[in-house]
Write a structure and sequence with these properties.
heterodimer; A: 480 residues; alpha/beta; Urease, subunit C, domain 1; TIM Barrel; eight-stranded mixed β-sheet; 13 helices; 18 strands; 21% strand; globular; B: 448 residues; 16 strands
C-alpha cells in the first residue's frame, strides 16, 4: 500500500473516530485530550537524541511526532509553520516546580505520604502561560519540603486552561517528595517539638516508617488471606482485622519500587545517609532535588545510580547551601551522573534555557549536554523519556520554536506546542492572558500571586514559612 | 570553541596549582603552601583586543595600558616599554567593569541565618545608619561576584522608611575604607504605601488611607525638620560669633547632605501608584536629588518619569507585577523607560547572585533596550547617576582601572570572563565556586 492510500485510510478512520468523539463529547463529560497536528518546516531541529539537523521538517499528527526529514509535504488539513532560520527543540521539562499548585505543603506531620498533588492543580494559573512562553511543556508539580516524607507529586503537561484531569501527564510513574536537613528539622523539631530536630532524627524517621510499612504490609496481607479463607469456609473465628492505612500503603509502594522518590536535599552527608537507607530497603529509583553538595559525592551518586536535579546557580540563601558551587552541574555531568536543571520558581521557569546555558559558563559542559539537562534528563527522572524529552518519531508533539539558538540570551521563544496543539504564540500574545478572572477583583489592584488562590486562607504555608513584615512577604529558608 | 578554550585555561590553572603544590612539598617541606593567589599590581598592557570604551565607541586591535590604579591609555598606538606586563588579548574583548546599582552585597552573607544579615536596622528613620560600616570585605559572595565581571556595586541598607545610606564599593579590598568609592553614595527611602501592598495585605481601604496619611505626615515633618536643622547649622557655621552653638542631632546631621542634594536619595517604588506618589513627593523638594529604584511598572508611567527627570535603577528577571500584564513587560521595562527618555541602570537587589547582573541587562537588550544601551546601563549610566563618571563607567584615560577581558559577549551566559581588574589590581580569577570545582572535579585523583 502506498503512502497516499495509507494516509487516506488513516484519515477516513480518523474522521470516523473524531465523529465518535464529537458525539461522545456531547453525551458524556469525557476527558479526551486535545491533540493537534502541525508541520514545522525547514528549521534547525535540536533533536537531543540525534544531534542537530539543519533545514529539517518535523511532522506532528494527532499529538505524535510521525516524521522528521527534509521536504515533507503537509497532509491535508495540517497547518504548516515556517521555521526557516529558527530552532526547533523538544519542550523544556522542569523536574521541580510548584506553579499550578493550589496547596503545596501539608506541614502537619513528619510523614504525610498519603497526601497528593493530584487533586491540587489549578489549570488556569497564569504562571502556566508564562512558563509556556519560555518553551516549557511539562512540569513535575511537587509537594513542599516541610516533611521528611512529604506528599506525592504529580507530573503535568502544561495544557493551560484545560482541567485538573487533563493537566496530568498520562502514563507518568507515581513519585513522592522526601526532604532532609534544615526544612523538616526546623518545621517539626524546632517548630512543633517533635522528631526530627537533627539530621540523625531524619534518618530514623525514614527507617521507622519503612519498618512499619513492611510490618503493615505483611500483617495486612495475612489478614486479607485469613479473611478470604474465613469468608469462603465460614469456619472457626473471624480474623482480627488489620485496618487499611493509606499512609502505610504508599510507603509500601515506595519500597516495592512503584513510587519513585524525589528527595529535597542539600548536604553531601544527608544524601549519603539516604542512599544507605535506600540500599537497606532495596529502593532503586530516586532523584536528589537541589542537591547543592552533590558535586562532593559524584562518584557515590554514580555508583548508586542516583540522579540529581539542581539549580544552575542558587546558593547561600541558607546555611546548608553555603558551601556550594555553580560548577555543580558540570562536575556531576563529568562524573556520569544524570542531572537536570530545575526552577522551583515561577520566575526561573520562564528562562530555563539560560539556566542551562550557565552550565556551559561554569565548567564547560557541552551545549548538547546543557540542553539535555532541561529535556531528556528530567524526562528520565520523571520516567517519561519514552514519551518526551527528544524530537524523535513516535514521541509526543511537545516542541518549542525559537528565533535563535535557545542557549543564547538574545533568543526568544516564539511558539510552544503540547501534543501538537499550540498553547503559546508570541505573534498572538495579548496583554491579558488570564483565563479565570474573579469578578469581585479590583482590576487595577490585581497583584501577582506568587502562590495561587487558596493561599490566603487555610494555608499551612502562612505563618509557618512565609513571613509578613513591613517590607511585604518573604519566604524564610525556602521550604518548597 | 569557547568551551575548549575554557577547558584549556582550567587545565592550565589546574596544572599550575598542581605544580606549585608539588614544588612546595618538595622544597619547603613542612611550610604551609600559600593557598590564596595574590593580586597583581603595577603596569599592565592589554593588547590586540576589541575595546568597548562605552563613551568613545569600539576600537578594534586596541591597547589598554594600566599604571597603578588608573587607566593610562586607551587606543590603537602606544609604545609599550619593557616594564609593562603584557597580556595578549587577541580575539578577546575589553569592557569597563560592570556596576550593579542596588545590592545588599557584603551586608548579607546567608539569607536565612539572621545573625549574618546586617542590611536591616531596627527603627523607621535611620539616615545615620551606613552600609559602609557593616560591609564585610571577606564576604564569600564578593569574589564569586567579581569573577563574573561585576567590579563595583552600590550596597544598600533596606528597612523601614529611611533605611540608611548605601555605599559605592569596589569588589576588592581588605577594609571598607580601601573598597569605598563613595562611602555615602545615596540615602535609601521607601515612601508610605497609598494602596494595599499586595494580596497578603488585608487592611481595609480606610485603614490603608489612615496609615498612609499618618506615615506621610511623619515623613514630611522629618524632612522639614532636617531642612530647618541644616539651615540652622549652616547659619551657625558661617557666622558662629555671638551665637549659641546648637546641639548636635545624629539623625538630623546625617540628613544635611541629603536635603542639600549633595548625595542623592534612592526611592524604592514598584507599582504605578507608588511611582506617581514618588514623583509628586520629589517635585516639592527641588533642593534634593532623587533616583527611583525597582520601578517594575515604570513602563506604565514612563512619560511621567521622564518629565520628572528621575533616573531609574531596574532589573528584568522577575514575574509581572500583575497577573493580567503581558509576560514580556519585566524584560521590556528598561527599553520602554529608555525610549521615553529615562536614564536607566541595572540593579539586581541581590546579594549572593549579583553576578547575574549582566543577564538582567541581556534581557533588557533583547527586549527593546539594545546591546549598546544595555552596556551603558551597567557602566556609564550608573556612574553618572551616582556622580562618579569622572572615575568610573568607561574605558578612558585617567579613569580608575576597573575593567575585564572576556572571550565574547558578556551578556551571553556561555561567555567566559577571563581576567578582571579592579582599581588596577589584577584580580585572581578564583572564588569559592572555582575552588570547589578544582577540588572536586576529579575528586579521587591522587598525587604520586
Amino acid at each position: 500500500m502506498d503512502r497516499f492510500s495509507k494516509n487516506k485510510q488513516r484519515r477516513t478512520a480518523m474522521k470516523k473516530l473524531l465523529l465518535m468523539i464529537f458525539i461522545l463529547g456531547f453525551a458524556t463529560a469525557t476527558y479526551a485530550q486535545e491533540k493537534g497536528s502541525v508541520l514545522v518546516k525547514n528549521g534547525t531541529v535540536i533533536t537531543i537524541a540525534n544531534g542537530d539537523m539543519e533545514n529539517t521538517d518535523v511532522l506532528i499528527r494527532d499529538g505524535v511526532i510521525t516524521e522528521i526529514g527534509k521536504n515533507l509535504d503537509a497532509p491535508r488539513g495540517v497547518q504548516t509553520v515556517d521555521a526557516t532560520g529558527k530552532y526547533v527543540m523538544p519542550g523544556i521539562i522542569d523536574a521541580h516546580s510548584h506553579i499550578a499548585g493550589v496547596d503545596i505543603n501539608e506541614a502537619t506531620n513528619p510523614v504525610t505520604a498519603e497526601v497528593t498533588m493530584e487533586e491540587s492543580v489549578d489549570p488556569n494559573d497564569i504562571n502556566i502561560y508564562w512558563a509556556l512562553a519560555g518553551g516549557v511543556t511539562s512540569i513535575h508539580l511537587m509537594h513542599g519540603s516541610a516533611n521528611v516524607i512529604g506528599g506525592q507529586n504529580e507530573t503535568l503537561k502544561l495544557r493551560y486552561g484545560s482541567s485538573m484531569e487533563e493537566m496530568r501527564f498520562e502514563g507518568a510513574p507515581r513519585t513522592i517528595k522526601f526532604a532532609l536537613g534544615e526544612n523538616p528539622t526546623r518545621v517539626h523539631g524546632q517548630g512543633y517539638g517533635v522528631q526530627p530536630r537533627t539530621r540523625m532524627g531524619v534518618e530514623q524517621v525514614v527507617r521507622d516508617h519503612f519498618d512499619a510499612a513492611i510490618d503493615y504490609q505483611r500483617n495486612r496481607e495475612a489478614y486479607l488471606q485469613a479473611k478470604a479463607a474465613y469468608d469462603k469456609n465460614q469456619r472457626g473465628t473471624p480474623p482480627v482485622p488489620v485496618a487499611k492505612n493509606l499512609r502505610m500503603e504508599v510507603l509500601s509502594d515506595i519500597i516495592d519500587g512503584e513510587v519513585w522518590v524525589h528527595c529535597h536535599s542539600y548536604r553531601a552527608d544527608e544524601i549519603l545517609m539516604l542512599m544507605r537507607v535506600f540500599k537497606d530497603y532495596g529502593i532503586e529509583n530516586f532523584t536528589f532535588q537541589h542537591a547543592n553538595e552533590a558535586f562532593k559525592i559524584a562518584p557515590e551518586l554514580r555508583k548508586n545510580g542516583a540522579r540529581t536535579s539542581i539549580f544552575a546557580d542558587w546558593w547561600a540563601y541558607k546555611f546548608e547551601v553555603y558551601y556550594s558551587t555553580a560548577y555543580n552541574a558540570s562536575i556531576l555531568n563529568a562524573n556520569g551522573v544524570n542531572n537536570s536543571i530545575n526552577s522551583d520558581s515561577g520566575e526561573l521557569i520562564r528562562h530555563l534555557n539560560h539556566e542551562a546555558a550557565k552550565t556551559v559558563h561554569y565548567g564547560g559542559t557541552s551545549k548538547q549536554d546543557a540542553l539535555k539537562m532541561i529535556t531528556l534528563n528530567p524526562a528520565i527522572q520523571l520516567g517519561v523519556d519514552d514519551k518526551v524529552g527528544t524530537i524523535e518519531e513516535g514521541k509526543h508533539g511537545d516542541i518549542a520554536i525559537w528565533n535563535g539558538h535557545p542557549l543564547s540570551i538574545y533568543s526568544i521563544c516564539e511558539q510552544t506546542y503540547v501534543d501538537g496543539k499550540k498553547y503559546f504564540d508570541r505573534a498572538e500574545d495579548a496583554d491579558d492572558m488570564r483565563l479565570e478572572v474573579n469578578p469581585e477583583e479590583n482590576y487595577d489592584e490585581t497583584y501577582t500571586r506568587w502562590y495561587e488562590s487558596g493561599k490566603e486562607e487555610d494555608s499551612c504555608l502562612r505563618g509557618a514559612e512565609i513571613l509578613f513584615d513591613s517590607e511585604g512577604m518573604s519566604i524564610n529558608g525556602g521550604t518548597e | 570553541m569557547n568551551n575548549l578554550r575554557f577547558v584549556q585555561t582550567m587545565m592550565k590553572r589546574l596544572s599550575k596549582i598542581f605544580m606549585s603544590c608539588l614544588l612546595c612539598f618538595l622544597i619547603t617541606d613542612g611550610v604551609q603552601a600559600q593557598i590564596t593567589e595574590k593580586p597583581g599590581f603595577g603596569k599592565f598592557a592589554i593588547t590586540n583586543a576589541t575595546l568597548h570604551t562605552v563613551t568613545n565607541g569600539t576600537i578594534e586591535n586596541g591597547i589598554v595600558l594600566i599604571n597603578g590604579e588608573k587607566i593610562e591609555f586607551v587606543g590603537k598606538n602606544a609604545k609599550i616599554t619593557a616594564d609593562y606586563q603584557q597580556i595578549n588579548a587577541e580575539g578577546k574583548h575589553v569592557y569597563p567593569g560592570f556596576m550593579d546599582s542596588g545590592t545588599i552585597l557584603g551586608l548579607q552573607e546567608v539569607g536565612a541565618v539572621a545573625v549574618t544579615n546586617d542590611q536591616a536596622e531596627l527603627g523607621d528613620y535611620n539616615p545615620h545608619v551606613r552600609a559602609f560600616t557593616a560591609i564585610n570585605p571577606s564576604s564569600v559572595s564578593i569574589p564569586v561576584t567579581r569573577v563574573n565581571g561585576v567590579t563595583h556595586v552600590i550596597s544598600l541598607p533596606v528597612s523601614g522608611r529611611i533605611a540608611g545610606k548605601g555605599a559605592l564599593i569596589d569588589l576588592f579590598g581588605y577594609s571598607p575604607d580601601s573598597m569605598a568609592v563613595q562611602p555615602n553614595a545615596a540615602l535609601h527611602l521607601t515612601l508610605p504605601a497609598s494602596q494595599q501592598r499586595g494580596w497578603w495585605d488585608d487592611r481595609s481601604d480606610k485603614e490603608v488611607k489612615e496609615a498612609y496619611e499618618k506615615s506621610m505626615k511623619e515623613l514630611n515633618e522629618f524632612w522639614k525638620k532636617a531642612e530647618f536643622y541644616n539651615k540652622m547649622m549652616t547659619a551657625y557655621e558661617q557666622n558662629p560669633k555671638g551665637k549659641k552653638q546648637p546641639d548636635k542631632d545624629e539623625k538630623m546631621d546625617a540628613m544635611r547632605e541629603v536635603v542639600t542634594g549633595d548625595i542623592p536619595v534612592i526611592i524604592t517604588a514598584d507599582k504605578k501608584q507608588e511611582i506617581l506618589d514618588a514623583i509628586e513627593w520629589t517635585k516639592e523638594r527641588s533642593d534634593a536629588r532623587f533616583i527611583l529604584a525597582g520601578v517594575e511598572e515604570g513602563w506604565r508611567v514612563a512619560e511621567e518619569i521622564a518629565d520628572a527627570g528621575l533616573p531609574c535603577l531596574v532589573s528584568t528577571l522577575y514575574t509581572p507585577e500583575r497577573d493580567f500584564d503581558n509576560y514580556q513587560r519585566p524584560y521590556q521595562n528598561p527599553g520602554k523607560l529608555h525610549e521615553a527618555g529615562v536614564k536607566v541602570a541595572i540593579a539586581t537587589g541581590e546579594s549572593e547572585n549579583v553576578r547575574n547582573a549582566p543577564y538582567h541587562a541581556g534581557y533588557a537588550a533583547t527586549y527593546g533596550l539594545g546591546v549598546e544601551e544595555a552596556v551603558k546601563a551597567l557602566t556609564i549610566n550608573p556612574a553618572e547617576i551616582f556622580g562618579v563618571s569622572d572615575r568610573l563607567g568607561s574605558l578612558e584615560e585617567g579613569k580608575q582601572a576597573n575593567l575585564f577581558i572576556s572571550d565574547g559577549d558578556p551578556f551571553e551566559p556561555m561567555t567566559t570572563i577571563e581576567q578582571v581588574f579592579i582599581r588596577g589590581y589584577k584580580i585572581p580569577m578564583v572564588s569559592r565556586h572555582t575552588q570547589l570545582y578544582e577540588e572536586y572535579l576529579n575528586r579521587d585523583a591522587v598525587k604520586n
